[in-house]
Amino acid sequence: MRSFLIAASVAALSVSAAMAGPLDSRFGNTVITKDGQGNETHLYYAADGTITGKQNGQTFKGTWKLDGGNVCLTFDQLPAGVANPTCVPASEHKVGDTWTRGPNTVSLVAGIQ
Question: What mean pLDDT comes out for the span 47-56?
Answer without folding.
Answer: 94
